[in-house]
Amino acid sequence: MNPTSRNNCFELYGFDILVDDNYKPWVLEVNVLPSLSSSSPFDKRIKTMLICDTLTLVGIRGYDKQKFHSQTTELLGLAPFAQSMTLSELRQKPRLTGSEQMTRDEVEMLMDLDEEFMRRGNFQRIFPLASNASFYEQFFDTKRYQNALCAAFLTSPQHIRD
After folding, report:
1. What is the pLDDT of residue 77?
2. What's the rounded Cα separation, in Å, for the pair 43 and 159?
3. What is the CA radius of gyration of the chain?
């Protein structure tokens, strides 16, 4: 894995759901450490497909270890190319217009957000979406700059595709 990628860590939760006679789902429990062992060929097939889809969605990237460790941050061009907006400036912009100044890291984060959406396969993104990013912000203890940036990006006219 590329040590500079923000896609190096993820969590997988296991949801135990019961569907009743009326096809109404009932969540029985959520496991933070779901079992990935298999007791049957069918179970093994399902869990193998889940792991493959999850790793595709996460977008783990390979890298040349020797090349990476021989270069410095300056040689990789990771220095920001602009001074970023402050959180208060970003809060005044419900959408991005394309003229904003952003650091390379911010641009890469937005590109990762878009690429993850394109890799989703049969998964469905439930957050963040243009339609719910602002609503769910109220449930976070701390207002994060990256969340506000993602919300502004997702609601920009050139991007909307919930």
Report:
1. 45
2. 39
3. 20
Rounded (10°) angle between helices 145-154 and 104-118: 60
> Which tokens sit at 23?
């096809």
Distance CA 101, CA 107 (A): 10
Of residues 48 and 10, more confidently modeled: 48
Regarding pTM above 0.70, the answer is no
In the chain, which ranges are E strands? 14-19, 25-31
Q: Whole-angstrom Cα distance, residue 47 to residue 135?
A: 33
Please answer whether residues 80 and 101 qualify as being in contact, where contact means their C-beta atoms are separated by less than 8 angstroms.
no
In tens, the pLDDT along 79-105 reads 444 567 777 777 777 778 777 778 888
Angle at 123 between CA 12 and CA 107, to 5 degrees: 85
Contacts of 53 (CB under 8 A, 6+ apart): 121, 122, 123
